[in-house]
Amino acid sequence: MFSPTSLCRRLIPPVLFMLAGVLPVSADSPNRNLLLVIDGLHPGYVTPAWMPNLHALGERGVFGERHTAVYPTYTRPNASSISTGSFPQRHGIVHNTMWVPEAGDGNINVGSAVQLRRLEAALSGPLFTAPTVGELLEEAGLLYLVCGSSGTGTALLQNHKGKGLGVWNARGYFHPPEMEEKAVQALGELPGNDRAEQTPWAFDAYLHHALGDIPPAFTLMWINEPDSAGHAHGVGSPEALEAVGNVDRHIGRILAAHEEHGLTDKINIFVTSDHGFTTNLGGFSVARVLGDAGLDGDGVRVVNNMIFLDDARREDKPAMVEALQRSGVIGAVYPRPSEPGSSIGAIPGTISTELIRWNHERSADILVSPAWTFDVNEFGFAGGTTRGGSSAATHGSDSPYDLHIRLVAAGPDIKRGVRSQVPTGNVDFIPTVLHLLGVERPETMDGRVMRELLAGGPDPEEVPVREFDHRAGVTFADGFRYETEIETLQVGRTHYHRGAWTARQPPANNRE
Length: 512
Description:
By secondary structure, the protein is of the alpha/beta class. It is built from 16 helices and 23 strands. Helix content is 27%, strand content 24%.
């Protein structure tokens, strides 16, 4: 048995896993699937210099050049969209922090498994309002594994009922709970709070099962690097690139293990992220904008960049939106639709939460994005937002820098040497995996099968892509004008939010 506390031991030849009592997969096993989510992986990191193993994997298979995160570009909505193949307006996990009055004080940190269980207990219905991949694979009699080093809430959202082989998480979340004893017996003690050590433990958890005698049909592995380094030190910082290199070394380790055990042509690998990254310029505060306009107080609750209103305060919504539209630190403003299903917001000059697929009963009355810029940081990476806080870099906006992420895929069922310009998104992984496993997907699932990336599928250049520009604007009584424009792409019936742009024009007598 090897110890998970030494990085050097992690880089031993894969054959030593055999000595730990792990058996190879039988030759007649069907093709399996691994989805690796690298938290905070900026698409610019995937180069031969910084991530040679991941880049080589894409060269062997497919690069998806127009892949998008789900908006809001936070971890937990994207984790939920990955595990359900649906947008937040269908699955119900609408933010990293949610306000649900039924759950005690109402504020729920969705990054905590404990608080998610509290939320689930308080709800009159299920935690997810869409079917999850764990449930679907359980019904089909196929094994599903979640492993990694994500936060405990993210791990729960990937397999919230512990179906199949359950959850093995380096940060101490196991489901069912008895899985912890099995994991420690197989891999040694948990690595503690060092994220660089959590990464190899998570890869060991995958290899323990992938090389075992009861391998999963589908593994969802979530690695928490380089997200924390990006937040703390900036996009493209030496610290972020060190974390990127650590992840890539372990990607190389699983590729070597697959090759050693004859699995390269038996396992499809998909790699992506949960969001992009932008430099934090500061200044964004929904609460301050409302307070300066005298529109805060009783009946108004601001949670992060969301505004929840009691019935008595809904008449103030137009004034609140106007105050936000006039503020230079604010980007697009999304109220609920003017009528059911409409992309037009209920307040003049706005696009609705329906267009961005966020119109769930748990959603706020108003969702607000920070403003963003094309600014280049000290490390040469473009994209900034006004998001506040002490971090050097952040995400969560509707800028293309936060929405655009990387897709890499390779394996026996995937084309070779393709760079696809067909739009894809995080909602598409589960429909694609279910298709590869022969499991029927629910008609309600928002995502699609990425057939143009699969062997025998259509040529990406022949896939019809529809492009839409949605515009809204308003001119106030004093002549101040606010405009917003949102670009969306559509393949089949699946829509992708590509970014939002806003512009302001002060009254003529105020212009210099």
